[in-house]
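To assess whether ligand presence alters the predicted conformation, the chain was also submitted together with adenosine-5'-diphosphate. Input:
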Amino acid sequence: MTTILEPDASQASVLQAMLHGSSAFGDMEALRSHLRDTPNEFAVVIGPSVAAEFAAEFAQWARVQRPDLGVILLRETVDSSALALALRSGMREVVQARDLAGVTTAVQRARSVASAIGQTLMDEAQAAADAAKAQVAAEAAAAQAAADAPVGQLHTVFSTKGGVGKSLVATNVAVAMADAGHRVCLVDLDVNSGDVAIMLQLNPTRTINDLVGFSGVIDDGAIDSVLTKYSDNLSIVAAPIRLDSLEQATAEDVGRLLDALKLRFEAVVVDTSGVFDDHALTALDRSDTIVLVGTLDIPALKGLKLAINTLELLNFTKESWKFVLNRADGRVGLSVDEYESTLGLEANATLVSANEVLNAVNRGEPLVRAFASHQNSKTLARFAATLAQSSSTSDTSSDHGGRKAGRLRRRKG
Ligand SMILES: Nc1ncnc2c1ncn2[C@@H]1O[C@H](COP(=O)(O)OP(=O)(O)O)[C@@H](O)[C@H]1O
Ligand SMILES: [Mg+2]
């Protein structure tokens, strides 16, 4: 429909006669109130007796409030000042007041512009609705994918004594798993004397302490920057190279790192320092398997007994424990049976003392690669396969095997 603004009654009736079905108003207030009530109005014809400044003011209002509305200005003479006024205030057309054909075509043009604008707005609204729907669907799919994503298993190699073979076991288990086709990350949490990088002859440029720079936001970028690649399937997070490093990763950083690594790797193997420090507890807390390592001697036995008592006190359930007995050579006056019954644990893997172990360490090669046919290598590879097996058969939705609900945590400080 068309609306006419013309205070002069006779002019108004002439225009109304020209534009069938139009409504005419004599003042601006009445016109605006009519437009508010008539949202599908598409053209306003401003009669020749409306002062230029009122016409401009209305056009400016309409440009903002009703951009679909075509404002057509009628003047007795269409001169440059009328055209400039129309241009400045955003009117569609200026037509000579007595040009009957000119006025009706301008109104027709306003009608088609309004319907095109209406269609575009509808298309945009539809597109926005489609986009919103697509986004909701994508978010739901992403959430589902995250929920369905397999969570990697975390195996922490632990003892309360140094020199028993933790790093040997951790490194070789990780390499064997990776060489068997699993995506593995080996994390060296022995922050004071980590050997993993040396044992694999790596020169890491970034270490676990570089997590500090990410201020607790351990995202994919943060993880990428602390990983050092060993092989296609194996990456490591190295222990700090310098002990006097000013910035040291906190237990919270380590916890977030391990949680994130479990989402990116099938298996995360953690080497520890030999004490119940915050880093070790953080790893133990998230462990699916706790691999205890001991050598066949009385000090190691004593240390392991202490470790077991403490783990029990901290409510780590025995079902998640594995035991690797190292240097079990039988010529040391202590039998494997005695050892096992004192601990209340049966060895899941037994390694012998061998020159090849030291030889491999000195060459910076993992035993399972340097001496693949050595009995220790075969034992370690078999042991790694059982850990990987437990990874693929475990129910990822359940709680960690290593943790009882409501486990009591003792923390220092
Ligand atoms: N079965 C073994 N035969 C010979 N040497 C071994 C054996 N197990 C460990 N070692 C040596 O003992 C040292 C300590 O081993 P490591 O794995 O670093 O222990 P941890 O990490 O518990 O301190 C290393 O030099 C290692 O080569
Ligand atoms: Mg070590």
